[in-house]
Specification:
Blueprint lengths: L25 H4 L12 E8 L3 H5 L7 E9 L8 E7 L9 H10 L3 E6 L18 H15 L5 E11 L1 H8 L3 H7 L9 E4 L5 E2 L10 E6 L8 H12 L4 E6 L15 E8 L5 E5 L2 E4 L14 E6 L3 H18 L6
Parallel strand pairs: 3-4, 3-5, 5-6, 6-8, 7-11, 8-9
Antiparallel strand pairs: 1-2, 2-4, 10-13, 11-12
Helix pairs in contact: 4-5
Length: about 325
């Protein structure tokens, strides 16, 4: 996997049909923002870093710098400080599910910040080669987005959640670990909730049960790219440790079930697929095959190619309802 450890090409990507429109150059954005004290919205550039998986796990803060951007939307009739959700894309970049989620969340009084981790780094996609950008670097992006939103006068810094899709789902899931927050996150600040959509869950991290906020995973039972079973097992381990975690599972739903521009089923032969791979963190930044204990090779034999994606209206509708109910409770929005 590309979260931490050696950089090897296991595909746990997401899928989106097209970029939403954040196709901008760093030059056109002006200087990266260090705060949003002026109440800025729209397209915002900010600084981040691009640690390798090993850099991330071992807290090498000298990782290369990068400038990326995101699209910040504040609800029109907002009064006082509002909660927010950082939205993290999958392996095809900012996709066609994002406008719908932005509309749903803004409509319930929640700001959204759609982060583009690819454009500023000159990356088009990682679905065919996950080594182009580690998920761990995108976790750093999410933390930097949180730190930036915390300076906005219209946003409640203590009510910011993270929601991501496949590769971005891994970001939403593993950014919950307190060890990563301690090493890379903003001081004395963490996400209020984590909402991963069809994430990969086949990696066992050190201190995986030490998380800071509730986790709600949304997954399709028919997903053949990032199967739901490892997520069920992970959530069970978390629950045994007393963590507030749950999997919402949708019968017959495929990877990308919330992308309305997808057909009901579409096979993608060229994408990497690591659904048969299991990984265990043996020591910080050192990963082994979960089944054999052997060190990971540059390209493990478990890696395959090809996966299926597809939209399912029922699953999408039910997921939207569950997300809104969960956030309304978590953010205490009832009656606002």
């Amino acid at each position: 996997m590309d979260l931490v450890g050696r950089t090897w090409r296991v595909g746990f990507p997401g899928f989106s049909v097209a970029l939403m429109g954040l196709v901008l150059s760093a030059c056109s954005l002006g200087h990266p923002r260090i705060d949003l004290a002026d109440g800025a919205t729209g397209t915002i550039a900010f600084r981040t870093q691009t640690p390798t998986p090993g850099d991330f796990a071992r807290r090498n803060l000298d990782a290369p710098a990068a400038v990326i951007w995101g699209e910040l939307s504040i609800p029109r009739r907002a009064s006082g400080r509002v909660p927010a959700v950082v939205l993290v894309h999958g392996s095809s970049g900012v996709g066609n599910n994002m406008p719908g989620w932005r509309s749903e969340l803004n409509g319930m009084g929640v700001a959204t910040f759609i982060v583009d981790s690819f454009g500023g780094r000159g990356i088009k996609e990682t679905a065919t080669d996950q080594s182009r950008l580690a998920t761990s670097a995108m976790i750093v992006d999410a933390y930097r987005a949180l730190a930036l939103l915390a300076t906005h006068p219209a946003i409640d810094r203590n009510r910011v959640a993270v929601m991501g899709f496949s590769k971005g789902g891994a970001v939403a899931l593993y950014s919950s670990l307190t060890r990563f927050q301690r090493d890379w996150g903003p001081p004395r600040l963490h996400f209020a909730a984590h909402l991963p959509f069809y994430p990969p869950c086949g990696i066992r991290l050190l201190d995986e049960e030490q998380v800071s906020a509730p986790i709600r995973i949304f997954h399709g039972a028919a997903d053949d790219w990032t199967p739901v079973e490892p997520c069920r097992e992970y959530v069970e381990r978390l629950r045994r440790a007393g963590v507030d975690a749950k999997v919402h599972e949708f019968a017959g739903a495929l990877h990308g079930f919330d992308v309305p521009t997808l057909p009901g089923s579409l096979y993608l032969p060229g994408v990497q697929n690591g659904r048969g791979c299991g990984v265990r963190e043996q020591s910080p930044g050192i990963f082994v095959d979960a089944a054999t204990g052997a060190p990971l090779s540059e390209r493990p034999a478990c890696v395959r190619y090809g996966a299926t994606v597809g939209y399912q209206a029922r699953a999408h509708r039910e997921a939207v309802a569950a997300v809104k109910e969960f956030l309304a409770t978590t953010f205490e929005l009832r009656g606002e």
